UniProtKB/TrEMBL annotation:
Keyword terms of this UniProt record: Membrane, Nitrate assimilation, Transmembrane, Transmembrane helix
Protein name in the entry: MFS transporter
Matches recorded under InterPro entries: MFS, MFS_dom, MFS_trans_sf, NO3_transporter
Single GO biological process annotation from the record: nitrate assimilation
Lineage top rank: taxon: Bacteria
Assigned protein family: Belongs to the major facilitator superfamily. Nitrate/nitrite porter (TC 2.A.1.8) family.
Gene3D superfamilies: MFS general substrate transporter like domains
Protein's organism: Alkalilimnicola ehrlichii
């Protein structure tokens, strides 16, 4: 997909252009989605007691919360190619608010499991976030734009760990008991999701020059791939082995992040015998690194592209993922709280840099099926979280051992990055596009 008037700069404090409105609304929407998606995670110690859940059952709910997202991410990417990111995002946010508030009515393991399964659909918001910034920004900054919007969205995983225990505590101060308190607390992210969806519809547009529908009517955008309808877009992406290599890579970084978001508070609560609020604050440090860490991954991806082209992006991705695995192994072996916190932060830094570097490559894979590529790669993150979830639901395995095995798996997966290769013609074309974007940026007023 070739679109005109993509932004060659990220004007962080500007809301006047459609590019920057899409930038800010997309990261905010993704941030809010994390608020709903993982809102229950820091309250699981209370939920465990209320519903009498076993370790195996908690593990099953963790898997459910990320499993459905695999399917929805695959579908939402193709849907973006067809109707555009504005309508796709607005619909997902409004519909996603329903199960977030509905989890308050869960009264057994089975109903709680179904609620977490339904809530997991809003995790597909990541694909739309990446799609929207990709069509709005030029090659010289698209890696940084993608990484920043995704990173500030992922930051919701950290703020959720901190805010939800505070919301829960505030509700308890009104005289409500704990078992009703966690249910009322989940209404807050549901309401926020709903109103964010309304705002997204009215404040954004699909592309720099308008919405998909209008551009197609004016002949400025080709129609959606018609080979067997929406399936054609998916098949174009699915036939590319490089897409599946990035699927594995993203499973090893974002999949790990989702897993840590689900188990970190409970891990610190049990392993270091902390109270609920302290465990939530420490667990939140992992997600708070998204404030800058994922942006760094995208920035270095763009920087390595300036020096070494697309090969540079691949090499940086490998090193970020390798270091993630090494520091996850270190974190798993920590028995002193202060050292565990340092290891957690370092491991988080490289996890999120690897995520940013992954989507620094996605815009260059297949421009005719951009949404489908983003959907498949994004689904890889949830597939990784599902696989990791089986480690944490095993009754005979401690969380510490599971984290060790997970770190070893990440080290192995890092080598999948080298399967992402580009032809000489593609590299030359992208180098020219990169130089052209830089020239346009220099010519434009600051």
């Amino acid at each position: 997909m070739e679109l005109r008037n993509k932004a060659t700069r990220i004007r962080l404090f500007s809301f006047n252009t459609p590019q920057m409105r899409a930038f800010h609304l997309s990261w905010l929407a993704f941030h809010v989605c994390f608020f709903g998606w993982f809102g229950i995670a820091p309250l699981m110690a209370v939920v465990r007691e209320d519903l009498s859940l076993t370790q195996s059952q908690i593990g099953s709910t963790i898997i459910a919360s990320v499993a459905i997202t695999i399917v929805v991410r695959l579908l939402i990417g193709v849907l973006c190619d067809k109707i555009g990111p504005r309508l796709a995002y607005s619909g997902l946010l409004v519909l996603g608010s329903i199960p977030v508030m509905g989890i308050a009515f869960a009264n057994s393991f089975e109903t709680f499991l179904l609620a977490r399964l339904a809530i997991g659909a809003i995790g597909a918001s990541f694909v739309i976030t990446q799609y929207h910034t990709t069509v709005m920004f030029a090659p010289n900054v698209v890696g940084t734009a993608n990484a920043t919007t995704a990173g500030w969205g992922n930051l919701g995983g950290g703020t959720t760990q901190i805010l939800m225990p505070l919301i829960f505590s505030a509700i308890l101060m009104l005289g409500v008991n704990e078992f009703l308190g966690w249910r009322l607390a989940m209404v807050v992210p549901g309401v926020v999701l709903f109103f964010t969806g309304i705002a997204y519809y009215f404040l954004t547009q699909d592309c720099p020059d308008g919405n998909f529908k209008d551009l197609r009517e004016r002949g400025e955008l080709p129609p959606a791939v018609k080979e067997r309808g929406m399936r054609g877009s998916f098949l174009l992406a699915a036939k590319d082995v490089r897409v599946w290599a990035l699927f594995i890579v993203y499973a090893a970084c974002f999949g790990v992040e989702l897993t840590i978001n689900n188990i970190a508070a409970l891990y610190f609560f049990d392993h270091f015998e902390l109270d609920l609020k302290t465990a939530g604050i420490i667990a939140g440090l992992f997600g708070l690194m998204n404030l800058f860490a994922r942006t760094l991954g995208g920035y270095f991806s763009d920087l390595f592209a300036r020096w070494h082209g697309l090969k540079g992006r691949v090499r940086f991705l490998f090193f970020a993922l390798l270091l993630e695995g090494i520091f996850l192994i270190v974190f798993s072996q920590m028995t002193v709280l202060s050292l565990a916190i340092v290891a957690l932060i370092t491991f988080s830094l490289f996890t999120q840099m690897a995520e940013g570097a992954t989507f620094g490559l996605v815009p260059f894979m297949n421009k005719k099926a951009l949404g489908a590529v983003a959907g498949i790669v994004g689904a890889g993150g949830n597939a990784g979280a599902v696989a990791a979830g089986f480690l944490f639901r095993t009754e005979g395995m401690t969380y510490q051992t599971a984290l060790l095995y997970l770190g070893l798996a990440v080290v192995v997966c890092a080598f999948a990055a080298f399967a992402v290769r580009f032809s000489a013609e593609t590299q030359a074309a992208e180098d020219e596009a990169f130089k052209a974007a830089l020239a346009e940026r220099e010519a434009a007023p600051a």
